[in-house]
Amino acid sequence: MSQLFLFESPVVRVTPFKAQLLKWVGNKQRFAHEIVGYFPSSFRTYYEPFLGSGAVMGTLAPERGVASDVFSPLIEIWQALRRDPSELKKWYADRWAMIEKLGKDEAYEAVKKSYNAEPNGADLLFLCRACYGGVVRFRQNDGYMSTPCGVHNPIHPSSFSHRVDAWRERTQDVNFILSDFEPMMEQAKKGDLIYCDPPYNDSQAILYGSQSFSLLRLFRAIDKCRRRGVYVVLSIDGTKKSGDKICDLGIPDGLFEREIFVNCGRSMLRRFQMGGRSLETEVVADRLLLTY
After folding, report:
1. DSSP state letters, 87-151
2. What distance in Å separates the CA atoms of residue 24 and residue 268, rounded to the nearest whole number?
3. What's domain 78-161's superfamily in CATH?
4. Among residues 28, 66, 235, 291, which is most buried (max CB within 10 A)?
5. How many CB atoms are closer than 10 A to CB 229?
C-alpha cells in the first residue's frame, strides 16, 4: 500500500466549502476539500453511511447521493433540510430565542432537558451548535446527553438561515436515510463511490453509537464493495501526540491500495477531556485509505 501526504498536491483541486451547518466532533469541514480531491474523477452514485456533520458530502455536492446514519435525531435534521428548509430554520430560531429570555447557559440546559426527555432532531440541532466544541456525547448506560454548554455564543438565526440555504442547494440531490452502514453499502454498485467516516476506536468511545461500532464488520463490508468494483474511501485513526503514537487497527492486507495522512491539528475531543488545557502535544493525523 503506497503512502502519500495531504501536504502534497491533491489529485483534483476542489474549492473549500467553509459554511459549517452542524458543529460536530471529528468534523472534516476544514480539510474536506482535500479529501474530495482524492476521489475518482468520475463515479456514479455517492454514498456516505456515517453521515455525522456531512462536511465531505457538502463540499462534494454530489449530483446523485445517498447518506445515512444510525442516529435517528441526526437524520431528522438532514431529512428536514431536504423536505422543508424553513422548518430547520424555525427549529433553531425558536431555541436561540430562549437565550434572550433565560440567558445562554439556562437556555442550553432547558433544551438539553427537553432532548433527554424525548430525543429529537429539533433540540439536537441547537445543542450541537451550542455545546462545548461540538462534542455530542451520551452516557452509555442510558443515552443521556451530558455535554455542557460551550463558551462560545451560538450563531444568530439569520446567519444560520444563510447556511441552511447553502446546504440545501449543495445537497438537493441527496437522499437521507436512517440505516446501519451495512445495508447502505450493499446497495452500491460498480462505479459508485462510498466515503466512510466511522467513530474512531482510539478516541471517540464516549460518542454516540461508538460503543457498539465494529471496525471488523466495516472492513468486511468494504472488502465486499471492493470486490464488486465500488470505490471506497475510509477516514480512520492515524497518529496522536505529534505522530508519537500510531493507531494499530488491524487493517487487512490488500484491502486498500493507498494510504494518505491528513494533518488535522489539535483535537477538540481531547481538549474537552483535558478540561481545556494545552494541547501542544495532542496533534492528530487521520489516515485516508483508498481501495483504488
Report:
1. HHHHHHHHHHHHHHHH-HHHHHHHHHHHHHHS--HHHHHHHHHHBGGG--BB-TTT--B-PPBPS
2. 10
3. Adenine-specific Methyltransferase, Domain 2 (1.10.1020.10)
4. 28
5. 13
Q: What is the pLDDT along the chain (292 residues), one digit of tens a residue?
A: 765 554 454 567 899 999 999 998 778 999 999 999 999 999 999 999 999 999 999 999 999 999 999 999 999 999 999 999 999 999 999 999 999 999 999 999 999 999 999 999 999 999 999 999 888 888 878 889 999 999 999 999 999 999 999 999 999 999 999 999 999 999 999 999 999 999 875 444 555 555 568 899 999 999 999 999 999 999 987 654 444 555 667 899 999 999 998 766 555 444 444 455 544 445 556 789 999 9
DSSP string, 189-220: -TT-EEEE-PPPTTT-TTBTTGGG--HHHHHH
The model's pTM is 0.86
> What's the angle, vertex CA 50, arms to CA 251 and CA 221, rounded to 5?
45
Indicate the domain borders of the chain: 2-70+175-290, 78-161
Contact between 91 and 121 (Cβ < 8 Å): yes
